[in-house]
Amino acid sequence: DNTRSGKIIIVVTGPRKITGSTRTITFDNYFFNGIKVEGTKTIESLGYNSNLNMVLSVKLTDGKLTLPDASVIERSFDHQRELIAGFDTKNIWDDEVLITGTSSGVTINNVAYTNTITTALHWTRACKFIVSGVVNIKREGKESVQLDYGTGNCDAVATVTKGDETKQITLRHKFR
Predict the structure, then answer these.
(1) pTM higher than 0.85 for the full model?
(2) Residue in 152, 150, 151, 147 with CA at minimum distance from that of residue 135
(3) Is the four-CA dihedral 10, 14, 17, 20 of positive or negative sign?
(4) Measured between alpha carbons, how far is 41 from 61 in angstroms, rounded to an integer?
(5) For 171, which of 107, 111, 147, 156 could close a Cys bridge (C-beta 3.0–4.6 Å)?
């Protein structure tokens, strides 16, 4: 069983379809299974782009998890999500999104990182994994790594490139 305490506060200024509408999520002394959750997530409707797709700005600022042993994980991101299919239907299984932007933070092992999406990540609700796109992963003190999710197949296969070396991997976790 999961345990929760504290408050999740969500402030909505208008419907997602209205340009400028925001949804802001904050935490007031919120704990999940003994882990303190902090940060502010803001989702803003930027309106329709030239492809006539709705675009959302999704930002996490000062994201922080404090574990019961006082270990800390930090994360922030600044993404844009282009809703390319399913936005105007009641069937959630036809939803598809292109994600661009960056994320950064500090791992539980106190290693700083920055991830930059260099080719838009293509997410479909019908698949547990990203189906295509490329992310450049930079870890403090390490050579950059490219993570390539492929060309559109719904599978757990991705390719990692570091310098001249490329290898295929099997993803373990679904996209959240």
Answers:
(1) yes
(2) 147
(3) negative
(4) 6
(5) 156
Is residue 84 within 8 Å of residue 77, measured between CB atoms?
Answer: no
Q: Which two tokens stand for residue 95?
A: 């939803």
Separation CA 79–CA 138 (nearest Å): 17
Contact between 146 and 139 under an 8 Å Cβ cutoff? The reply is no
Instruction: Report angle CA 40, 57, 140 to the nearest 5 degrees.
Output: 65
Which distant-in-sequence residues (6+ apart) come within 8 Å of 8 by Cβ? 25, 26, 27, 28, 30
pLDDT in tens, 81-133: 999 998 888 888 899 999 999 999 999 999 999 999 999 999 999 898 999 99
